[in-house]
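Minutes, project huddle
Topic: does the predicted pose make sense with nicotinamide-adenine-dinucleotide bound?
PN asked that the exact inputs be recorded in the minutes so nobody has to dig through chat later. Recorded below.
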Amino acid sequence: MSDSYLKFVNSPFGARFARSLGLPKPEVLRRYRADRPEFEGMVAIGAGREPQLLDALASLVASIGVTSVAHESATPWVALANRHGLMTGRFEPADSGSSARLAALLFDASGIEDSTQLEPLHAFFHDTLRSLGKCGRIVVLGRTPETCDTPRQWTAQRALEGLTRSLGKEARRGITANLLYVEKGAGSSDHALDATLRFFLSPRSAYVSGQVVRIGANAANVANAPAFDWTQPLAGKRAVVTGAARGIGAAIAGVLAAEGAHVIGIDIPPARDALESTMQQLNGTALAFDIAAPEAPAQIAAALDELGVDIVVHNAGITKDKTIAKMTDAAWQNVIDINLSAQERIDDALLAAGILRDGGRIIGVSSISGIAGNLGQTNYATSKAGVIGRVQSMAPHLRARGITINAVAPGFIETQMTAKIPLTIREAGRRMNSMSQGGQPVDVAQTIAWLAHPGAAGVTGQIVRVCGQSLIGA
Ligand code: NAD
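Predicted holo structure (tokens), as shared on screen:
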């Protein structure tokens, strides 16, 4: 579905018209394109006291091939960058002119142990934010509060959430701001942070802002994982995607296939033609099953048994909206069954038979309705909150097998599902976020591809909203 207002205000006439009336002008978001460089421009580095992740940042900056400038808060960066053979300089206030646009601001807050040590965050963002170009990236790195040694350290690290979420709301112009909490030990192995940092610095995360992601120390497993190619990280992997005939599911299938995976798409028998045509274009496999049918888990397990599977994406979902007083029992039951219980039954079947391989990935599709609740969606929000519970409850059990389980929670995404929403509610949902626009199915798909990445082994039990920092929800 297209956003006519976004197109209009980004035309020469529309831009003048919007300016004269003081109307908001959403930015055309820069999204990943295989024919354009993924990373370019200059990143500014800032740091709090005794930063512990600068080495990991230097190896990342070297691997993505961008130049860097050190803010005065990050004096160790220059020597470190030189050791890594990086082109680097110092950030000077003069750089804040329009001729010196930055592509990203990276701040290492890992060494902050007390609220009295937060001041360098103000200094860095005060000095640099106006130099950050359109669709720029802000990433703050901290330590997982729950694993901090002292209450004061936990407090100071937790404070980073307020800063990062506010930066996302202030920056506008298609800029995203996200916080990565890195557990001690997780940053020590090469690549343990790279896949996640790359995602949050890339145009792939165009519609992901205001998020907090915890990277666990089991990311050290990445060091033992087989080497992968950054251009085809999912080569040799097999991925199941439910609800793959159209919308977000078709986009997920497309992105996972582009990353090298063989995709097995599942959708209901009436969607067989669309499913087969999507899968044919991707050299994938089409399975026409209703995932909620009692026999579906056994049928899916049998279809995957011989070759196994590495990635399971539970995308299929439906809405049957009515206020609870008017909602029939069937509408309640149907939504819970397809959106939640079917996923549990399928996972159980694949895990029990060892069809989902060790080191595998389970990724659920929740919704911001499951976080905030929504009028007329008691059934849907219950099912989507259940998806979050599933992720949180299963993550510890799957850790021993190196399987991660995470969910994305989309906000307003332009699909046939949201096209059905009445106009005024649709327009409100679309604009009430830091990007002032809806997301595209590919934004959800790229986020899922990051969670499926071999380098995201330390990311488990997480819920990542793909909502342009929607005002709806937490
Ligand atoms: P969509 O209706 O366009 O596509 C859903 C697909 O799932 C369809 O192809 C459908 O046939 C399939 N499906 C439904 N029931 C099935 C079943 N029993 N067995 C197999 N396949 C089945 O929806 P979409 O907008 O692409 O949404 C995809 C997912 O994202 C859903 O889980 C939805 O709840 C979630 N989501 C969407 C939005 C949004 O803004 N579009 C926001 C939040 C969450």
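Observations noted during the meeting:
- The chain has two domains: 31-217, 222-466.
- The domain at 222-466 is CATH 3.40.50.720 (Rossmann fold).
No decisions taken; revisit at the next huddle.
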